[in-house]
């Protein structure tokens, strides 16, 4: 999340460095013209998408359940990698 905040602050800082000219001939190309409005809409949309994706990734990492050794043992038994006798002895070892 720190990386995202650093990125956003950098984008905001760099965008504030752009100084629009106020000459009549350059008006459509500044932040006051249609091109400037469209550019800001695109920038805001990109920032919103980045924030949304970062939040979704963080939620997925939090909800991800960690497998316990017993879960792994059960999967190995279900796949047929170990016998019932091996399963029982390993299970007793894990419960100690």
Structure overview:
The protein has 96 residues and is mostly helical. It has two domains: 2-63; 65-96, no CATH class. 71% of the residues lie in helices and 0% in strands. It has helices at residues 2-16, 34-63, 69-79, 84-95. Helix 3 runs antiparallel to helix 4. It starts with a helix and ends with a helix. The model has no long low-confidence stretch (mean pLDDT 77).
Layout of secondary structure:
Blueprint: H1 2-16, H2 34-63, H3 69-79, H4 84-95
Give structural attributes.
mainly alpha, 2 domains, 4 helices, 0% strand, rod-shaped
Using only C-alpha atoms, the radius of gyration works out to 28 Å
Can you give the helix content as a percent range?
Answer: over 70%
Percent of sequence in beta strands: under 5%
Number of helices: 4
What ranges have pLDDT less than 50 throughout 5 or more consecutive residues? none
> End-to-end span in angstroms?
40 Å
Overall form: rod-shaped
Give the domain tally.
2
SSE order, as H and E? Answer: HHHH
In round numbers, the mean pLDDT is 77
> How many extended strands?
0
Largest sheet: none
Structural class category: mainly alpha
């Amino acid at each position: 999340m720190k990386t995202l905040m650093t990125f956003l602050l950098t984008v905001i800082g760099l965008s504030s460095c752009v100084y629009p000219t106020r000459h009549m001939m350059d008006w459509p190309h500044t932040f006051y013209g249609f091109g400037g409005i469209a550019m800001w809409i695109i920038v805001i949309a990109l920032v919103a998408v980045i924030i949304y994706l970062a939040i979704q990734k963080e939620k997925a990492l939090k909800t991800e359940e960690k497998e316990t050794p017993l879960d792994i043992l059960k999967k190995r038994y279900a796949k047929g990698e170990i016998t019932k006798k091996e399963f029982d002895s390993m299970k007793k070892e894990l419960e100690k």
